[in-house]
Specification:
The complex is a heterodimer.
Chain A lengths: L3 H14 L4 E17 L2 E19 L2 E7 L4 H20 L14 E5 L11 H15 L5 E19 L4 E19 L2 E7 L5 E4 L2 H7 L1 H15 L8 E7 L1 H13 L4 H4 L29 E4 L20 E6 L2 E2 L6 H6 L8 E2 L8 E2 L4 E3 L15 E13 L5 E13 L2 E6 L3 E5 H6 L1 E4 L6 E10 L4 E9 L2 E8 L6
Parallel strand pairs in A: 4-6, 9-16
Antiparallel strand pairs in A: 1-2, 1-5, 2-3, 5-6, 6-7, 6-8, 9-23, 10-11, 10-15, 11-12, 13-14, 16-17, 17-18, 17-19, 19-23, 20-23, 21-22
Chain B lengths: L2 H13 L5 E17 L2 E19 L2 E7 L4 H17 L24 H5 L2 H17 L3 E17 L4 E16 L4 E8 L7 H14 L9 E7 L1 H8 L8 H6 L10 E2 L7 E3 L21 E5 L2 E2 L6 H7 L21 E3 L6 H6 L3 E15 L4 E14 L2 E5 L3 E6 H6 L1 E11 L4 E17 L3
Parallel strand pairs in B: 7-13, 12-18
Antiparallel strand pairs in B: 1-2, 1-4, 2-3, 4-5, 5-6, 7-18, 8-11, 9-10, 9-12, 10-11, 13-14, 14-15, 14-16, 16-18, 17-18
Helix pairs in contact in B: 4-5
Classes of the chains: A alpha+beta, B alpha+beta.
């Protein structure tokens, strides 16, 4: 058993002795279990454990980060010294200083609340659930591939800093889902459930049970088969209603990434891009209609990104991004918040021990509205109801987007009608959110997790959440990509 | 960790398995990346790691465990856990089993010592070269410089012992002006190829040349795609050549092999041994990778397979397996597009009216089987009139079938290695007729 306290003391002492004005070290052990069933066979049954630590060192306003799995005295010395060497290399050519030593000190622990530890569920029971669900997906001869999966993550981490922080956290994240591929006569259609990637949340086996894979598998298979012969979604300008998981993706792409302050400051300019937002727009930009309120809550029960403290040792809390349609905040780190004269809202995460912490949207939620789901169809003479993402693309300023969904239904005179295939819609971020005139209430509000958010260089895979319920948008361009 | 140490580690793991079939993959990496923005370094990182993947097959039941704890007790536990997982898994009588092969030699030039040992200070010097050029033109630069050494060893109880060591490095730079941006990249095995001054100059010239961009109408355009744009576009085609996609009907090849799917000038291959790749000569099951043609003058003849899909479809194993078992099937790893006869400059000169695209962003499939994808232009899009670049245009969104694009394509004679986090390819600049743009932006 590694003595993290002793290792941390050595790492921080070494970094300080090498000249670091501040240093922190994050020890992490990440365990990931994945089971995936495909066409009646167990295609993946893996258990991955990766343990290591990353040292951040600040020298003359420049950050260095080095990571290693070697916890020997020599390994720790080498890694801490490397972090300082890297910081010095940056400082040597620096024309400006991005970093400043934090002053916070926390000594605390946090553990994800859960009802049943997924690891305590016998493996045979987990596999049986997936085999049952996958078998039921084959509801028609045209189903050529069925898949069902469960992901379990347990992350143990201990953070130490030269300011005296010691923060120990035990995080549980769980997800499951399934998909059916139907193909015939040169046509192929996918359906997946829940949402497009599954249901991913913070917690234990109760998250898998909430997904109700067995209960929904046959319907999903039938829908995939039916899509092969469904009429094409029309092209034009229509009112649309989006299912909750698609609203979640819409938040992720056109609000969450747009409001990352590192992106706004140009820190992601060469890769994931910048943002159409500017700090001068705080309090003045009408981002959406007055029904749109989007907040960060990194303490949210079942939030996929819920933690006690972020990966630069700042305490989780709640903060607003959009309040009644007005832009009021960003996702921030300490260094970026300081440029606005604000405090960090603890939105910094690393994609593993080997990665440097960076700004993430964490748990970002569109607050529920005040009408039942079915009422979203009221007042729609002709429109399209779309569910479950199939395609997503947005420009590098987060303005021009085009999304596709797996399935749609016509709305005629306030009623849901026939099934349509290949629905797509497109828009420009502020105009789109300003066209939102109804959001379903808390009964259909769900904390949808995103297990595969890519950002940064080297690329890091982040786990975020966007809680949402279905919502209605008026006069949206529909059918792009299929309109000739 | 060198190949001898990795092989010793793999032997140690194999010695902990009493019976049945056991496969060990050892991955080793030492990488550094220096990232900059606004003409200064803001992220500067490095990491080293060695990890082991153990696959056991006992009585037709497979289990997999991965760990980076390399002491004997942890490795014994990894083997035991893989067997325990497998014991609870359903028996799969159709599983392909482990492959048995002699070592395969790596292509010449796969490893460069200067790349393996490049320091943070050396990366910073390349950054400084870039910044000097960009800042000197009154612009600001964002990008990265990276170098990496990596190695893999595959050993199994059927006698396979294969190791491969390589280096890689790269830089990219986006030069930013008031109303325009420009991009350049370098990807190589050798650190000496990272010429920051040259890349900074290209990015700067693109930014200055696209100042005060104009809006052009969406619709069908003749486009010239430079390698970063074309390589990313084609990364959404390679999955169609997987035997799994073919079998399940999600590939356009489900319409049949030995048919023409693209124009006569289009030849795509998978070639790990291309000198710009000098890639891994075996797959993640240890099977020798075959260099093969994907589209030969527009006609598809081959699928990529692994041991499982070769057995299932009664085809030969082409050695394109991912770590087994894989839910995603075999994959094209080293795409090479044959160049043409004209220079990239000639392609521009021969264009009466069109658009030159430096780079795409956020391409995603719209309709997978029809190969329709959407995405945005980015960081240097130019209007061509009467064979001359006349200025920058604001960015646009496209919706385009890749196969239709390849139906009327002309390639440059120059080729370049390009890549992202999920693909690497060697491609020329390409001229495509009737490329469909659906909307624009105000930047």
């Amino acid at each position: 058993m590694t003595d993290f306290d002793a290792c941390a003391a050595r790492a921080l002492d070494t970094a300080s002795a090498r000249g670091a004005a501040y240093a922190d070290v994050r020890f992490e052990e990440d365990r990931a279990e994945r089971i995936e069933v495909r066409n009646g066979s167990v295609a993946t049954l893996t258990d991955r454990t990766s343990a290591g630590y990353g040292v951040r060192a600040l020298f003359d306003g420049a950050w260095g980060f080095a990571a290693s799995a070697d916890t020997s005295d020599a390994g720790i010395d080498r890694t801490a010294a490397r972090a300082v060497e890297i910081a010095r290399a940056g400082a040597a050519i620096a024309s400006r200083r991005f970093g400043e030593a934090p002053q916070d000190r926390y000594v605390d622990t946090f553990a994800t609340p859960y009802e049943r530890d997924a690891a305590s569920v016998p493996l045979g029971e987990r596999v049986a659930l997936l085999l049952d669900a996958e078998r039921a997906l084959h509801a028609a001869p045209s189903i050529r591939a069925g898949r069902a999966w469960i992901d379990l993550w347990h992350t143990g981490k201990v953070f130490y800093s030269t300011t005296g922080s010691r923060i120990e956290q035990s995080l549980l994240q769980t997800g499951s889902g399934m998909s059916a591929l139907a193909a015939a006569d040169g046509e192929a259609q996918d359906r997946s459930y829940p949402g497009d990637v599954g249901l991913y949340q913070g917690g234990g086996w109760e998250i898998v049970e909430a997904a109700q894979l067995r209960e929904n598998a046959q319907r999903i298979g039938e829908e995939a088969a039916a899509l092969l012969v469904a009429p094409q979604c029309p092209s034009g300008e229509f009112d649309i209603v989006l299912g909750g998981s698609q609203v979640s993706l819409q938040i992720h792409e056109s609000c969450g990434h747009a409001a990352e302050l590192d992106r706004i400051m140009g820190w992601e300019a060469n890769f994931s891009g910048t943002s159409f937002l500017d700090p001068a727009q705080l309090g003045t930009l009408r981002y959406g209609s007055d029904r749109v309120t989007i907040e960060i809550d990194n303490t949210m029960p079942r939030g996929f990104a819920t933690v006690g403290y972020d990966d630069e040792g700042a305490k989780s809390g709640r903060s607003d991004i959009i309040r009644s349609g007005m832009l009021v905040g960003f996702e921030m780190s300490r260094d970026t918040a300081r440029t606005l004269g604000r405090e960090t809202n603890a939105c910094v995460r690393a994609g593993g021990w080997e990665h440097v912490p960076m700004i993430r949207m964490c748990n970002l939620s569109l607050l529920p509205g005040d009408v039942p789901f079915d009422a979203l169809f009221d007042g729609v003479d002709y429109g399209i109801y779309m569910e479950s993402n199939r395609s997503w693309s947005i420009d590098d300023h987060r303005l021009n987007f085009q999304f596709g969904c797996q399935i749609a239904w016509e709305i005629r005179n306030g009623k849901r009608g026939r099934m349509l295939k290949n629905p797509t819609y497109a828009g420009v971020t502020p105009q789109f959110w300003n066209s939102c005139d109804a959001i379903a209430d808390e009964r259909s509000w769900l904390a949808w997790g995103t297990p595969n958010c890519g950002k940064g260089e080297p690329m890091q895979t982040g786990r975020t959440a966007q809680a949402a319920s279905p919502a209605r948008f008026r006069k949206v361009r529909v059918g792009v990509g299929y309109d000739g | 960790m060198d190949s001898a140490a990795r092989e010793a580690l793999a032997e140690r793991v194999l010695s902990f398995a009493p019976d049945g079939e056991t496969e060990v993959l050892v991955f080793d990496v030492d990488s550094g990346l220096t990232r900059f923005t606004q003409n200064a370094i803001h992220q500067n990182v490095a990491h080293v790691d060695t990890s082991v993947r153990v696959r056991t097959i006992v009585d037709g039941r497979t289990g997999v465990v991965m760990t980076n704890a390399l002491d004997d007790a942890s490795l014994r536990a990894a083997v035991a856990n893989a067997r325990a997982i497998g014991a609870l898994a359903p028996r799969d009588d159709d599983a392909a089993g482990l492959v048995a092969n002699a070592p395969v030699a790596a292509p010449d030039g796969a490893f460069d010592t200067a790349t393996a040992t490049a320091s943070p200070a050396e990366r910073a010097r390349v950054v400084a070269d870039i910044v000097r050029v960009v800042e000197g033109a009154g612009l600001w630069a964002a990008g990265y410089v990276t170098n990496e050494r990596s190695g893999i060893t595959i050993a199994n109880s059927s006698g396979t012992r294969s190791s491969y060591d390589t280096t890689s490095c790269g830089l990219n730079v986006k030069a930013n002006g008031d109303d325009s941006t420009g991009f350049a990249e370098r990807n190589s095995i050798r650190f000496d190829d990272l010429d920051g001054t040259s890349a900074g100059t290209i990015a700067t010239e693109k930014t200055l040349a696209s100042k005060a961009p104009v809006t052009v109408e969406p619709g069908e355009w003749t486009v010239i795609l430079e390698p970063p744009a074309f390589g990313e576009l084609l990364s959404y085609l390679t999955g169609h050549f997987s035997a799994q996609s073919y079998d399940e009907g999600s590939s356009f090849l489900a319409n049949g092999l030995d048919r023409a799917y693209a124009g006569d000038d289009v030849t795509l291959s998978d070639d790990y041994a291309h000198p710009l790749f000098a890639g891994q000569p075996f797959d993640y099951e240890g099977y020798p990778t075959r260099r093969l043609s994907l589209l030969e003058r527009g006609v598809a003849h081959e699928l990529v397979t692994d041991s499982a899909w070769a057995k299932r479809l009664h085809r030969s194993n082409t050695g394109h397996g991912l770590p087994a078992p894989s839910a995603y099937g075999p994959a094209v790893q080293h795409l090479v597009v044959a160049g043409g006869t004209q220079s990239a400059a000639d392609l521009v000169r021969g264009t009466k009216r069109g658009l030159l695209v430096t780079r795409f962003w956020y391409i995603r499939p719209v309709d997978h089987i029809k190969t329709i994808v959407t995405g945005m232009t980015r960081d240097g899009t130019f209007l061509i009139e009467n064979g001359e670049i006349v200025g920058g245009v604001r960015n646009m969104r496209f919706n385009q079938s890749i196969l239709e694009a390849l139906g009327a394509a002309t390639f440059s004679s120059e080729i370049a290695r390009t890549g992202g986090y999920s693909y690497a390819s060697i491609v020329p600049t390409v001229k495509i007729e009737n490329f469909r743009f659906s909307s624009g932006t105000d930047f």
